[in-house]
Amino acid sequence: MSDRAATQIIRTDGTRLALVDNFSFRDLQEAVNGYVEFVSLADGWVLALNEDGRPLGLAPNRAATEDARSRGLPGDYALVGDVVLLSPEDYSRVMEVEEVEECPII
User: Fold this and answer.
1) In CA terms, which of 7, 48, 53, 88 is 20 to 30 Å from 22?
2) 106 residues of the chain, pLDDT tens digit each
3) How far does CA 35 lie from the centroid of its chain?
4) Phi and psi dihedrals of 36, rounded to 5?
5) Which run of H or of E encompasses 50?
């Protein structure tokens, strides 16, 4: 099981890379190589994955699937492509920043 204290990218080959502070929504898009879909897990952590992963035929991500199942992902759901596992704090921070950036200045 992964280190539960660090937001990280889990690649399809099983390697894990910790994300540095102050990463953005665009960084998440780059990490999953496309449009981001968020999946909330039972323990409060959040997955960021490529929302078009299945249609694109992305490779299965066994390491991310196992980790996510230990956090409450339903047993019959398998993840594909590179996945970002976000701590609740990092998810909130990224979403707050994005909301501010998207607001028009009047």
Assistant:
1) 53
2) 444 468 999 999 999 999 887 889 999 999 999 999 999 999 999 999 999 999 999 999 999 999 999 998 877 889 999 999 999 999 998 988 655 444 444 4
3) 11
4) -95, 135
5) strand 46-50
| Residue type, position 76, single letter | D
| Cβ atoms within 10 Å, residue 68 | 25
| pLDDT score at 63 | 97
Q: Which among 57, 63, 73 has a CA at the least distance from the CA of 14?
A: 63
Q: Report long-range pairs for 93-96 (Cβ below 8 Å, ≥24 apart).
A: 94/23, 94/24, 94/25, 94/28, 95/25
Please give the Cα distance from 80 to 97 (Å, whole number): 27
DSSP letter, residue 76: T
The pLDDT of residue 96: 84
